[in-house]
């Protein structure tokens, strides 16, 4: 199967700082990247969809200025949580649009804002 | 809008027994994909099984099989000969087909009793 690398796996940051999460597709090219958020004991909720070289499309209720997505290449997308606050603490998962119809997922990033 | 419903927040099964997890969905599309994903404590999303809506035959993968009822918009997962390693959160997911953008159900936490 396709290999997806998401980094860091967990991060603790102070309130007001920014955190960058990287997602790489190691053995395939991903034109599209999906970013999901998962609160404890809840389901995955799509935050945004990005296409390589263009602006991301955000789901309703997701602040585009807080969650900056860059998809500059076919193998790398980043999610930056700007001016993080405790309510941004969550589990973030990337999912590159893989070959065929199967979605692949990164290992996830557990963000804790203190 | 498409929705996915999992009505069983938690299920329990004895080791070596069979368990069925329920999933219903709502869509006006005729061509789509349905998935079951497993999320163990590591939180890595793992594809269990996939079903193409245009296929009448139910998908099977070793001990995992689905009962796909397109008219009823039902997509249940049957796990046979349950093993301790099957204990995890299971998510049903829908993909409209144009992209790999997934809509997830709320999940079912499966416990396997030795």
Structure notes:
The complex is a heterodimer of chains A (114) and B (114). Chain A is mainly β. Chain A has strands spanning 4-7, 10-13, 19-25, 32-38, 44-51, 57-58, 67-73, 76-81, 90-96, 109-113. In chain A, strands 2-10-9-4-5-6 form a six-stranded mixed β-sheet, with no helix packed on it. A four-stranded antiparallel β-sheet of chain A has the order 1-3-8-7, with no helix packed on it. Chain A is globular. Chain A starts with a strand and ends with a strand. By secondary structure, chain B is mainly β. Chains A and B meet through strand 4, strand 5 and strand 9 of A and strand 6 and strand 11 of B.
Helix residue percentage of chain A: under 10%
Largest sheet: number of strands, sense, barrel closure of chain B: 6 strands, mixed
Shape of chain B: globular
Stretches with pLDDT under 50, minimum 5 residues of chain B: none
Number of strands of chain B: 12
Number of helices of chain A: 0
**Class computed from helices, strands and strand pairing of chain B:** mainly beta
Main attributes?
heterodimer; A: about 110 residues; mainly beta; six-stranded mixed sheet; four-stranded antiparallel sheet; 10 strands; about 0% helix; globular; B: about 110 residues
Helix and strand arrangement:
The complex is a heterodimer of chains A (114) and B (114).
Chain A: E1 4-7, E2 10-13, E3 19-25, E4 32-38, E5 44-51, E6 57-58, E7 67-73, E8 76-81, E9 90-96, E10 109-113
Parallel strand pairs in A: 2-10
Antiparallel strand pairs in A: 1-3, 3-8, 4-5, 4-9, 5-6, 7-8, 9-10
Chain B: E1 3-5, E2 10-14, E3 19-21, E4 24-26, E5 33-39, E6 46-52, E7 60-61, E8 64-69, E9 74-79, E10 88-95, E11 102-104, E12 108-113
Parallel strand pairs in B: 2-12
Antiparallel strand pairs in B: 1-4, 3-9, 5-6, 5-10, 7-8, 8-9, 10-11, 10-12
């Amino acid at each position: 199967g396709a290999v997806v690398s998401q980094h860091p796996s967990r991060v603790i940051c102070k309130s007001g700082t920014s955190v960058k999460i990287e997602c790489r597709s190691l053995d395939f090219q991903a034109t599209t990247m999906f970013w999901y958020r998962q609160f404890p004991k809840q389901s995955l909720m799509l935050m945004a969809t990005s296409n390589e070289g263009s602006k991301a499309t955000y789901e309703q209720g997701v602040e585009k200025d807080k969650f900056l997505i860059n998809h500059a290449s076919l193998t790398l997308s980043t999610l930056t949580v700007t001016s993080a606050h405790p309510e941004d603490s969550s589990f973030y998962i990337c999912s590159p649009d893989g070959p065929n119809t199967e979605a692949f997922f990164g290992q996830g990033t557990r963000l804790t804002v203190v | 809008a498409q929705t996915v419903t999992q009505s069983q927040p938690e299920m329990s099964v004895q080791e070596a027994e069979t368990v069925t997890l329920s999933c219903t969905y709502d869509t006006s599309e005729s061509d789509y994909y349905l998935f079951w994903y497993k999320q163990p404590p590591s939180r890595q999303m793992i594809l269990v099984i996939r079903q193409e809506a245009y296929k009448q035959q139910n998908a099977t993968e070793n001990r995992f099989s689905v009962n796909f009822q397109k008219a009823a918009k039902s997509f249940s997962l049957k796990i046979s000969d349950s093993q301790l390693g099957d204990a995890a959160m299971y998510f049903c997911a829908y993909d409209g087909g144009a992209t790999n953008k997934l809509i997830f159900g709320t999940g079912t936490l499966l416990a396997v009793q030795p």
